[in-house]
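The protein record quoted in full:

***
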Amino acid sequence: MPRQAVDIDQVLSAFKNAGTRMNILVLDACRDNPFTEQSTGRGLSQLDAPAGTYLAFATSPGNVAADADAGGAHGLYTRFLLQELQQPARIEDVFKRVRLHVRKQSQGKQIPWESSSLEEDFYFNDGIKYTLKPTQTEAQQLALAQAQAEQKRLSIEAAREAAFAREKADWDRIKNTRDANDIYAYLQKYPTGLISEQAHAALEKLAKPQIVMQADKNGIVQQPGQSRFRIGDVHVTLVRNGFNDVELRKGTQRVDAIRNDLAIINQSARNPIIRSLNGDLYEGVGASGRITYDPPLVIFPSGEMQVGKKWVGRSVETTPSGKFKRDDTYKITALEDVTVAAGTYKAFKVENEAFREDGIHVVNTYWLVPDWGFPIKSEVEVRTRRGQYLFWEKREMFSQKRGAG
């Protein structure tokens, strides 16, 4: 049987030459070759999405997808993709729901994978063509659009508050569950919600993937669901003033205990730090004392880290001066070599921006390696509503010690 293949680079080059603003490429061809006479790699290799492109794989790089059931027209991935395309939704919601369906149906043996470099939202619509009524004048159309925009502006925050209240209530009901079906149901309802990253992290523990994680093109092998902390881990940070680069202090964080899937850091301190094993921040320490976050801040994304990945979160931040809602956006923008006092590391660069309801604005850029729970490096700027600096600090890992477990 002759082998036939399509060069993906040629497809991507065609996209580029066409000058399209947005491209979507779905690859459902991750099968073993039953006729080969020699050992070859399984599945497709990892591929990063070029600018303005959304790449979707039927399964994770280096793994294979299931064929169609006997008598079925499509495999698992295509079947669920066609199902989800029947209803209007954001592109991220569609493919995350497909991933959940396939993961659950295959019992973790097939987990779809995506790579995105989209800079704007894209929605699949309901297939209905909408047109303006011919009787409407241009002025009427403009007035209607302005009225709708104003109504949207007035109601968007109220709608967001109500949506978050519903999502958090649903999450609080199941956050301690030991049944993966509860998490699957929650994520089908909130595939890209404000607490979805915590739910995905819980799923990694309750329904562990049955696939073999492959090294990416940089030789990094990630193990989703694996703890980023061990008892005895020590992380020493050198802190400098962001304005003049003057050294301010050194700080030491030590993982003293792990209880109930939480890492207890600096246990003997007046205000210990509490992190999830995935890296989420439950309790921290600020200049004025103890700070708690409910839900926790999602420092690390769930699942694999990859350039282009985005996530969001909302927390109630409780400080000695009061309680404030905090909205965070995150994006992994690069994988780069980072040199700090402790050495040189291949690290993912994360750009985080947060707005608190009292006007506090945080810009936090930090660099992570997948198997270490602390940032290798970070730059944190905190300003008031009027743009005045509260502080600007540069932090880097001065030394590290891996605990025995």
In short: Helices lie at 8-18, 76-84, 91-105, 138-174, 180-189, 196-206.
